[in-house]
Amino acid sequence: MDEIYDRLKEINSDIKVLPSSGYSIDGLTKTILAKGCDGFIQKPFGTKKLSQKLREILDTK
Which CATH number fits domain 2-59: 3.90.1170.40, 3.40.50.2300, 3.40.440.10, 3.10.50.40? Predict the structure, then answer.
């Protein structure tokens, strides 16, 4: 996940990234969040939760 995030940011530094995992927030996720990742969503999630997270991310600059 860390390498994918870095590569996405290399391609487009303005891209919004919302990783998702069935595991709790672990060290790797904390590392990505510390780098400036836009958020995290815990699996399982429904469409309402996903929509809320996406709206939060898209509403921030």
Answer: 3.40.50.2300
Residue 53 to residues 3, 12, 23, 27: CA-CA distances in angstroms?
23, 21, 18, 21
How many residues are listed for the chain in this entry? 61
Q: Provide the β-strand partners of residue 21.
A: 42
**61 has pLDDT over 80:** no
Which parts of the chain fold into alpha helices (H)?
2-11, 27-34, 47-59
Omega within 30 of 0 (cis) for the link into 44:
yes
What local confidence, expressed as pLDDT, does residue 32 receive?
86
> In this structure, what token pair is assigned to residue 39?
């958020």
